[in-house]
Amino acid sequence: EATGEILLFRLVAEQVSHNPPVSAFHFECPQQRLSISGNLSIKAKFMGMYVGVTLGGDMVLELPAHNHSQDQETEKYEMTFPMLYLRSFLFEPWLEFGGKININCSESKLSAGIVFQTKPFYGGKPHQVTAEIKGQSGNTTARISGDWTSGVMELCWVNGQSESIDLQTEGDLLEKKIRRISDQADEESYKLWYPVRRNLISGDFQSAAEHKKIVRILLL
């Protein structure tokens, strides 16, 4: 930040079920009193020319209360996940989201619906979204549209005013750092699946299958 403060971010993610595959995650920044928690399941289906992936589960974003005069200290925004599509996987694979997600906050009584529009077969632009924000009365107060990957969106209020907003979705990618296997607990996903990964890399598929059976039993 401009003040020179170093922000601390923590992320914990673990596979909590193997069949069906379900992962749980928690992300937080204590200094900003921000946290994200949720669970995610994946169900893929081959659709001929593409693969459709249903992202099940939900996520909760917790922020400091926007109106500090309110009794509550935080606001919790509950949201769902969109569909994920793998396009042109035989030639030049690329990914896009599709479908609608809903966001609701019981503390502020605000809600929003975000529609991820899939790219038409001919023409059109990828990664387009439209959204409607509703106030406490349930009436639409603003609409947002644009390319979510670029971060530049158009915000239009119901009174006719509009403005461009930059969500700044792009940033430096940080290299993932993983603790040594010996420092991990026995139930951590990376350590549980490490023998499977090691045997697959070495080409010992029989041992990989045997270790996979062990992991499935442990995760039941």
Automatic annotation (TrEMBL):
GO cellular component: cytosol; membrane
Species for this entry: Daphnia pulex (Water flea)
InterPro entries: OSBP_sf (IPR037239), Oxysterol-bd (IPR000648)
Lineage: Eukaryota, Metazoa, Ecdysozoa, Arthropoda, Crustacea
A Pfam entry, by short name: Oxysterol_BP
One function term, GO molecular function aspect: sterol binding
Position of the signal peptide: none
Protein name per its UniProtKB record: Uncharacterized protein
